[in-house]
Amino acid sequence: MIETRPRKGLTRRALLSRSMAAGASLVVGAGFVAGSDAAWALETQALRPETMATLIQMARDIYPHDHLADEYYAIAVKGYDTAEAAEGIEAGIAGLNAAAQGKGHADYLGISWERDRVDILRSMEDSAFFQQIRGGLVTGLYNQKAVWPLFGYEGESFSQGGYIDRGFDDINWL
Amino acid sequence: MAAPFDLSDDTVIVVIGTGAGGGVLSNELAQRGVSVVALEAGGRYLPEDYVNDEWESFGQLAWLDPRTTSGDWRVARDFSGLPAWIVKAVGGTTTHWAGASIRFQDHEWKAATTYGPVQGANLLDWPIGAEEMAPWYDLAEKKLGVTRTNDIPGLPGCNNYKVFEAGAKALGYKEVHTGRMAINSQDYDGRLACQQTGFCFQGCKWGAKWSAAYTDIPRGEATGNLEVRERAHVARILHDDAGKVTGVEYFDADGNLQMQKARAVCVAGNSFESPRLLLNSASSMFPDGLANSSGQVGRNYMRHMTGSVYGVFDKPVKMWRGTTMAGIIQDEARHDPSRGFVGGYELETLALGLPFMAAFLDPGSWGREFTTALDSYENMAGMWIVGEDMPQETNRVTLNHEVQDQYGLPVANVHFSDHPNDIAMRNHAYRQGIAVYEAVGATRTFPTPPYPSTHNLGTNRMSENPRDGVVNKWGQTHDIANLFVSDGSQFTTGAAENPTLTIVALAIRQADHIAGELSRGNL
Ligand SMILES: Cc1cc2nc3c(=O)[nH]c(=O)nc-3n(C[C@H](O)[C@H](O)[C@H](O)COP(=O)(O)OP(=O)(O)OC[C@H]3O[C@@H](n4cnc5c(N)ncnc54)[C@H](O)[C@@H]3O)c2cc1C
Ligand code: SF4
């Protein structure tokens, strides 16, 4: 099982001391990626942690929601961290880094402006790799029940008796 | 004999599919004392099984067997294996449907005559008309408990409707209301009133929305004249040397091939599977498939001219609360060629949950243009456009011999391209839909492309002349007297209205005809 919560016994200071910044809000250490606030950590199995960090950044750049923490993007892509998927993902991310290097950056995570990262994604948006990641995110990200309230969506309502007495017609600004 | 029936019982009527067409037909025949075996590819799910969760419900109920697509419609690009969003379950797509139940306008039965020649369109008048259908519509409305008919009050308006209504009125539209819905506004027929749960597309857990799954099917079974075999996928319709249908071959729940004999067979698998089955039943006597001497089986596929408009406002709407389809504007449904197209369209409110909105708002798009739209999800209102599309011979269901389903049968390929009339009508509807929302202060609007088809029509169409279509005015195939078509594939033209009330009315009428023919000794 991959934990997206802080690993037991790993304090913020301990975590940060064992990792390097990777992009704006991610840190990478031996065998894990974490939020730079140490609110969550993801142990990687088959993917290199740098690859996973880049994948998380790529996911955010495809569907950027400033009010969603990286954790949700990490959950959305963690399914690629398997022996079967790893080779394709490593190759895809290597391609992404190569494109970044072609534009004079160290790698994809080293690009500070979203605009410049998105330019690179646009140039590869017809590739099978990009479409795999984008397509997977449609359910991987938006079908996470934990993100629904962050968009206001209330989800299941039958168990609460529907909205007949809970504001189905409560609009007050028309 | 009473149900269950023997495989070798050749006195039964076999009905294939148990949705709006087949489910109603089965019950109506059973009520008239006719023995029926209904074969349904899907399983049985009832309100307690339905889930208030868009993707989970989709996985539970949707038809997911392989299909392929071609043509220039965007669905072929964005959802190439999913040309339609329909159901595989006892009750068919009446589990998913929203419940909008409106009659055709009188002139729509005579599209060819009313519209005149339209280049590239294969228009034809129905061999039946408004007057003949009126009593059957009466029965269908009573069965479904349609609001605003028979003194049943309309549903109350939810938030999404209120925005829509205010915009419509500001634009000067007159025919705006909460719809004629097969959703109870008060207890009716032993079923509860709508609790405004907002998951009508996922199966109504209260049973407030009519579905054949928990009305017609159990009532038919209660007569002892109907046996429904679920997870029974019909592979082929069989015939004798005289060219009469003798029964069907189907794969049962364990994947074993069975043969059920029949006195007559009624095909009601929705507009992809019904023609596919006729084509897959080709024999040396009927090399082009059953009932296909006209070459029209699978042709003239219609899916309604559709699209959606979503509007974002500066304040919350919470459109997901309450009935999914909660109201209608009918002013544009008329035939008025001065708008630049023949036929008309309806505007109906529609709400999607966040997961489906992400998938369908603008399939394939990404980046901030897309995500800022979803950031405003709470402030969104939505409507769906449904209008008459032109039948075209080249829009058609064919067999794709390259791809096979789990039984090794060639799958349906669905080819569709818009007619210029469809495009002109859609553009008009987008403009009007956007104007409705702008009239109440929308800060941003989205003319959203059509989803995988929910209305599928026309692929075994009804015609006066056997040369022009597949079935006659009773849904009986022109070529084979004891083979009938009983679903939306019979539609000669699509009209502007949601089709199910008409499918149900035709099924009741067909049941009456078949029972009559049986008692007259003609079948
Ligand atoms: C989300 C959604 C909303 C909708 N809202 C509305 C609405 O508001 N108003 C309206 O009028 N219409 C609406 N519709 C459309 C409506 O549901 C369909 O028009 C109607 O159900 C079609 O009836 P049918 O009998 O042709 O097919 P279906 O109801 O689809 O039934 C066909 C059945 O046949 C079975 N079958 C197929 N092939 C085989 C086989 N080989 N062997 C055995 N069984 C087979 C299928 O599993 C299925 O159960 C909606 C549809 C959807 C998806
Ligand atoms: S809104 Fe009404 S009809 Fe729709 S699912 Fe809920 S209770 Fe049923």
TrEMBL record, chain A:
This protein's source sits in the domain of life called: Bacteria
- Family matches, as InterPro entries: TAT_signal
What the entry lists under PROSITE patterns is as follows: TAT (PS51318)
Q: What is this protein called?
A: Tat (Twin-arginine translocation) pathway signal sequence
TrEMBL record, chain B:
Q: Which InterPro entries match?
A: FAD/NAD-bd_sf (IPR036188), GMC_OxRdtase_N (IPR000172), GMC_OxRtase_C (IPR007867)
| Protein name listed in UniProt | Choline dehydrogenase
Q: Per UniProt, which keywords does this protein have?
A: FAD, Flavoprotein, Oxidoreductase
Chain ranges of the Glucose-methanol-choline oxidoreductase N-terminal domain: 88-305
Q: Which PANTHER family match?
A: LONG-CHAIN-ALCOHOL OXIDASE
Domain named Glucose-methanol-choline oxidoreductase C-terminal is located at 391-507
Please state which protein family the record places this protein in.
Answer: Belongs to the GMC oxidoreductase family.
Q: Which Pfam families match?
A: GMC_oxred_C, GMC_oxred_N
Give the domain of life: Bacteria
- Gene Ontology MF terms in the entry: flavin adenine dinucleotide binding; oxidoreductase activity, acting on CH-OH group of donors
What organism does the UniProt record list as the source? Roseovarius azorensis
Gene3D superfamilies named in the record = FAD/NAD(P)-binding domain
